[in-house]
């Protein structure tokens, strides 16, 4: 086992990648060439993301399972941090990464808008979003958001969570002033009093609760879409063996986390820069013991969220969303996953 508390490969190089992933400009490493489909003829590169909202990715990176399994085949593994689903989708669309982790709703939105991605694995069922206010806020529920300034990262699960939450009080985004800020910036704006509420995302949300006394005034796990792993279609066509290796590693990590919960908690705390207790809260709100095979369960959730894309003007028509959902899942990799 590599040194989790010292972060092993998540040391200086990992922190550098973190800085790149959270660059406000959205800059990312140059797009990786697809290389040859024959590992014996030409070196290949596997470029994928890691994210604090995806604890399995942190374990796979730290343990260097992919580097160990694929290095002998001439494959170089490169990691890029995604600061949110919107960034992961941006990297996937631009070819900066071949595999990236997002919320299910973000994956559907991206495919509805022409991004050539497929969901190959479901990594978690998280309760990772909530409507958050400051400790002294007079806001006690969603209805109180009318006319208020609310921070959210558009194109991500907290944003779609917010839209659904507003609907429970008969409100829409037209009834609030929406501040489109990246997740960490949304928390900073809430702390500074520049917004009245924030559509939060763990582990940043859990840290806001523990460190600043922030309060979650609306919480509903049913309004969160699943955490999913997406791959570019050209990558799946050219390198199915590498895609399978990644999914295999995810299933290995799924079993590793509950068996090594203290180490997994320490790892999340170190990478996210949060207190171990906050990391424990985050992992406690993240269900990993689920089927990794994308399909009807996720589709049922996304069928409820999809119409919001059209209502909010994110997608032109419902037919486009329906077509994207019908072609979003590629279950074969998770069905064949071998975590050994």
TrEMBL record:
Q: Which GO terms describe its cellular component?
A: membrane; periplasmic space
Q: Does the keyword Signal apply?
A: yes
Q: Which domain of life is it from?
A: Bacteria
Q: Which residues form the signal peptide?
A: 1-19
Q: Which InterPro entries does the entry mention?
A: ABC_SsuA_sub-bd, Solute-binding_3/MltF_N, SsuA/THI5
Q: Please state what the protein is called.
A: Putative aliphatic sulfonates-binding protein
Where is this chain's protein located in or outside the cell? Periplasm
**Segments forming domain Solute-binding protein family 3/N-terminal:** 47-260
């Amino acid at each position: 086992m590599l040194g989790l508390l010292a972060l092993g490969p998540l040391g200086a190089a990992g922190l550098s990648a973190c800085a790149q992933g959270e660059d406000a400009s959205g800059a990312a490493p140059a797009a990786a060439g697809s290389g040859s489909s024959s590992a014996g003829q030409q070196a290949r590169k596997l470029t994928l993301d890691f994210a604090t909202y995806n604890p399995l990715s942190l374990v796979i990176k730290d343990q260097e399972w992919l580097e160990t399994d694929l290095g002998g085949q001439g494959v170089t593994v490169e990691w890029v941090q995604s600061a949110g689903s919107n960034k992961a989708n941006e990297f996937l669309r631009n070819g900066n990464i071949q595999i990236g982790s997002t919320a299910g709703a973000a994956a559907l939105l991206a495919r509805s808008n022409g991004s050539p991605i497929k969901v190959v694995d479901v990594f978690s069922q998280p309760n990772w979003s909530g409507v958050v206010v400051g400790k002294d806020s007079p806001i006690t529920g969603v209805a109180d958001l009318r006319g208020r300034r609310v921070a959210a990262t558009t194109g991500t699960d907290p944003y779609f969570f917010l839209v659904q939450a507003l609907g429970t009080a008969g409100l829409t985004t037209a009834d609030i002033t929406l501040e489109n800020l990246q997740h960490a910036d949304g928390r900073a704006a809430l702390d500074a009093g520049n917004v009245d509420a924030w559509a939060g995302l763990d582990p940043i949300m859990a840290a806001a609760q523990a460190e600043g006394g922030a309060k979650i005034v609306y919480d509903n796990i049913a309004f969160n879409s699943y955490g999913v792993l997406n791959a570019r279609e050209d990558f799946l066509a050219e390198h199915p063996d590498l895609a399978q290796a990644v999914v295999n590693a995810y299933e290995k990590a799924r079993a590793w986390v509950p068996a090594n919960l203290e180490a997994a908690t320490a790892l999340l705390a170190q990478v996210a820069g949060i207190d171990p207790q906050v990391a424990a809260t985050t992992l406690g709100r993240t269900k990993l013991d689920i089927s990794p095979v994308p399909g009807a369960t996720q589709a049922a959730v996304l069928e409820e969220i999809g119409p919001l894309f059209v209502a909010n003007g994110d997608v032109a028509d419902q037919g486009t969303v329906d077509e994207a959902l019908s072609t979003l899942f590629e279950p074969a990799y998770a069905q064949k996953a071998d975590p050994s």
